[in-house]
Design brief:
Helix content: under 10%
Largest sheet: 2 strands, antiparallel
Number of domains: 1
Distance between the termini: 36 Å
Low-confidence stretches: none
Strand order of the largest sheet: 1-2
Amino acid sequence: MTHWELLPENPVIGDKVEIRGTASSEEEIEVRVSFEKEVQVSEGRYEYLLEEIKIPDGFNNQFTVQAKGADDLNVRVKMVLWDQECTV
């Protein structure tokens, strides 16, 4: 990787963060993104909804969810297996 930048340069909680970079076409780049979210319990249940998460194409991509202090964890994932644009 020859260049990368973080936008905004000094993010604060709540900011949308963008990472841009430049590399050769033969170069493989490993990227890991993580965050923590404390979810409040209401009537013995908790819920957190992630929307508009885009995981790039590829075979080595992973999406991991971990809960601490919970008796159970239900995760639902909607995967788009065919996403193709067509220009006529």
